[in-house]
Amino acid sequence: GQALSWCGAHRLGHGVRLIDDITLTGADLHPQLGRLAAYVRDTRVPLELCPTSNLQTGAAPSIAEHPIGVLTALRFRVTVNTDNRLMSGTSMTGELQKLVDAFGYDPADLRWFTINAMKSAFLPFDERLQVIEHQIKPAYAALGG
């Protein structure tokens, strides 16, 4: 939260702890968002989540219990990342496959993660739109997603 309020950050790397500001009641995810979580979701602050790294650091006990599932279901702007590929021993393919295995994500879900990442990329707005419309969407359409 301090990165946003004090430093003016426009994204949260390793934003996995944001789950601590969310209270879920019932099986259908009726969330009570705290002030920070509501701000992050309402203003579409990207959450750069690194599932394998988060397991290695103890931020999540397993992929199936990783907050990415809840944060995705609640429509936060979640992006999937590798952190340090060499230290974590993973790749983007590996990260996405783990999420598919744990949460049953399909190509449409992976498309959503990919578009979120491009919306949050360090590129001018018009370039981001070009990549989304002319590369990402057609590629996923060809996959049936």
What does this structure look like?
The chain is mostly helical. It folds into two domains: 2-105, no CATH class; 106-145. Helix content is 50%, strand content 11%. The chain is built from eight helices and five strands. The protein has helices at residues 2-5, 35-42, 51-56, 68-73, 85-88, 92-103, 107-119, 125-143; strands at 12-13, 22-25, 30-33, 47-49, 78-80. Strands 1-4-5 form a three-stranded parallel sheet. The longest helix is centred in the C-terminal third of the chain and has 19 residues, at 125-143. It is globular.
Q: Beta fraction of the residues?
A: 5-15%
Order of helices and strands: HEEEHEHHEHHHH
Number of strands: 5
The pLDDT mean sits at: 90
Could you describe the largest sheet, including whether it forms a barrel?
3 strands, parallel
Share of helix, binned: 40-55%
Question: Which regions are unreliable across 5 or more consecutive residues at pLDDT < 50?
Answer: none
What would the principal axes of the Cα set say about the shape?
globular
Class from secondary-structure proportions: mainly alpha
Output the radius of gyration: 15 Å
Q: Spatial order of the strands in the main sheet?
A: 1-4-5
Number of domains: 2
Distance N to C terminus: 34 Å
EC number: 3.5.4.4
Cofactor: Zn(2+)
GO biological process, one term: inosine biosynthetic process
Domain Adenosine deaminase: 2-134
Spell out the blueprint of helices and strands.
Layout lengths: L1 H4 L6 E2 L8 E4 L4 E4 L1 H8 L4 E3 L1 H6 L11 H6 L4 E3 L4 H4 L3 H12 L3 H13 L5 H19 L2
Parallel strand pairs: 1-4, 4-5
Antiparallel strand pairs: 2-3
Cofactor: Zn(2+)
InterPro entries: A_deaminase_dom, Ado/ade_deaminase, Metal_Hydrolase
EC number: 3.5.4.4
